[in-house]
Give the backbone structure.
Amino acid sequence: MAMRFDGKVLLTTGGGSGLAAAVARRFASEGGRVAVLDLDGARATAVAAELKGSLGLAVDVASEDGVRDAVATVHREMGRIDCVFNAAGHADFGPIETWTLERWNRMMGVHVGGTFLVCKYVLPIMRSQGGGSIVNVASIAAMVAQPNNSPYGAAKGAIVGFSRQLALEAAPLVRVNVVAPGRIRTGMTVPLWQQRGGGNLEAGVSQAAVLNMLKRVGEPDDIAGPVCFLFSDDAAFMTGTTLVPDGGETAV
Ligand SMILES: NC(=O)c1ccc[n+]([C@@H]2O[C@H](COP(=O)([O-])OP(=O)(O)OC[C@H]3O[C@@H](n4cnc5c(N)ncnc54)[C@H](O)[C@@H]3O)[C@@H](O)[C@H]2O)c1
């Protein structure tokens, strides 16, 4: 039986963990091969090793040389790049007076700069192949206020604006969309929930779960579905838009 991603190659950043690892597994389970890029090369290699024909690479997405070389390696080794998931990122919170410019620049450099760099280097490849689909990760923090979270919200808001503009520039061959998840159980959120629950993870999870209509936190597969939909031909008429899988949190 033909599968949605037969013959296709996905490049994902942040692929050693969380949302991007789930997207990599879903993409591979539907016939595709995946280049798993992560700051943590061992984690990238471990995820790639589970997936037939896939490749793991260590890269810091905030480094232009690193991203340029990694994209070239993926193109050379895997022959093509059809889909991209820009998910590398970190959480960092705190009152604005405690932020240094260096910390702010790292937030912007990884989330916004990393997304920009990967798009810059994959777009010519996708155009030369005749098409492609890029999904960039924002967050509900781009849409609603959250305590002590303004640098992260600024970075995620910039990703929404960048993606909308890039969609126009990349059209009609390449589609560019955004996924803005709510609260999902990953390596990023579990330590926060543990802390907020006073050391009790389930207490922290419950505090996060009550904030949405469905009264649970999301799991990485709740994001893998929408992202793979955006990669697929079912989303062939969608570009420049944002999907918000958040259990209804931003609708109330
Ligand atoms: N989990 C959530 O609730 C949630 C909600 C909204 C948005 N997001 C966003 O989703 C993305 C993925 O986060 P996650 O929840 O899967 O977290 P995660 O910590 O499980 O995974 C993030 C991965 O990114 C990698 N990474 C960090 N900095 C990097 C860099 N400079 N270069 C390359 N790789 C780097 C980490 O090593 C890690 O493997 C992030 O952009 C995050 O902001 C997460």
Notes: The chain has eight helices and seven strands.
